[in-house]
Task: structure prediction
Amino acid sequence: MIDRAVAGRDQPATTLLGPGDDAAVVRAPDGAVVASTDMLVQGRHFRLDWSSPEQVGRKAVAQNGADIVAMGAWPTSFLVAIGCPPTTPVAVTDALTAGIWAEVAEFDAGVIGGDMVQAEQLVVSITVLGDLGGHAPVLRSGARPGDQVAVAGRLGWSAAGLAVLLAELDGFAELIAAHKVPRPPYRSGPIAARAGATGMTDVSDGLVADLGHMCTASGVAVDLDSALLEPGPELAAAAEALGADALDWVLTGGEDHALVATFPADVPLPEGWRRIGSVLAGEGVLVDGRSRAGGGGWQSFD
Amino acid sequence: MIDRAVAGRDQPATTLLGPGDDAAVVRAPDGAVVASTDMLVQGRHFRLDWSSPEQVGRKAVAQNGADIVAMGAWPTSFLVAIGCPPTTPVAVTDALTAGIWAEVAEFDAGVIGGDMVQAEQLVVSITVLGDLGGHAPVLRSGARPGDQVAVAGRLGWSAAGLAVLLAELDGFAELIAAHKVPRPPYRSGPIAARAGATGMTDVSDGLVADLGHMCTASGVAVDLDSALLEPGPELAAAAEALGADALDWVLTGGEDHALVATFPADVPLPEGWRRIGSVLAGEGVLVDGRSRAGGGGWQSFD
Result:
């Protein structure tokens, strides 16, 4: 199965030695490598009655890749460990690995190593390596009072898509697709780093939650401007059909893997980035100057 | 749980940015990084009624580390993803991560990233990164006719320990310990590389099987000298008690993660290495000049 997963695949120039030996060797041109790992478990992070195995593979790679671009780096290599029941059809593992390779191709990266073992449920564990291209990494801890807060990519689409699926609503294909396979704005990460971003993270747990982690790491507060977070027509339509609050999806929905970053006040925001608020002295995440932790009614606010 | 696993742990100088951001950053001094990944699943790769969680953690790190030293490199960093049932006691995950850190300390390496998620069974997926220290990697494909074949570390101990456990024999504590936590001869890998090893791999599937992979990759045959593979008194005693063939454990037992390498005929073998045979033109693994694939009676011979 491992042979099937790697046979005939092209490796990028960064792969000095691909799969097949005890370990792979990857170029790290600037003398440092960025690394992150994530594990996805069937029934918890994906459902095979909702998502195709190919979509699961794409999603697993996307969420790992987003962690690398959120440092301002670019993924070069992925290592993939898959656990699956012995009854798993070969077509399923083939589609899973095809999805992995398809998303890896978005980065012109390679799958350089892997392991495939028997397990009671499908488990996909991915490690991604990336290259900083000579730049310093952009950390969560770099936000400073006075900075602009900006976002690249979609907010709330995955959460809205999940709500549509759970309610078994017809339509809203774009939202459902966003839930099944996130489309993180990969190139916006290195672009932000080169434009002078002071802090950055990807939105995996929700905008308020992930900005909260940045505020804690940076020792600052963030004030979001709700007028700049206006949900688009897709979210508004789904919210109306479901009797839900579209702004709540925008503020608390995770898994879209948008990027949120802070920039000095005098820096013009680069392509793909839009302003959503400001960094202040203090702590925590405000919306329109008010903390909604106390009486705002968001269970997921933190 | 991730916080518990990384809090208060020292990071080596190679860790430029440890856990806590979207990704970690690791030094890669010579411009390349060696990487490998392995997944261990409860019930398949370990049993918690036989092994303590700490032993499972040590074993998971050991088998990953062995892949790096088998390239002649040295591990610098580990990324650890753990899936476990929600009912798992904190004492179990604490002991598991303590075992992981204990074995990682054998390399003066660091755990630089991780993920902990709910799963139906305990799954430990580890990725290891290593540094070549400016040397070329030692590949499986480098063996040449005329080379000496040499081994560092134990052969057959893990298989004998497993047989003892399965038979519920008393005694043989050293063999059982060898099965629960392999003790690969880590330093012998880089030592072999510096001494001029032409090819190298670690013995994870068994000496004959792993040498077979080397023969295929190198386009050569290997002739092992059974007189140089004489099982020691521990294996002999267990074989007598079980009515088993100790040489069979030596030739086919895996999981000790011994290192097997080839050296030019005129190279004095470095410390820790002992000669066990020769590289010939041809294909496959012979013992005392004869192929035992046909009538030798080893099911696992390949």
Chain A touches chain B through 62 residues (CB under 8 Å). The radius of gyration of chain A is 20 Å.
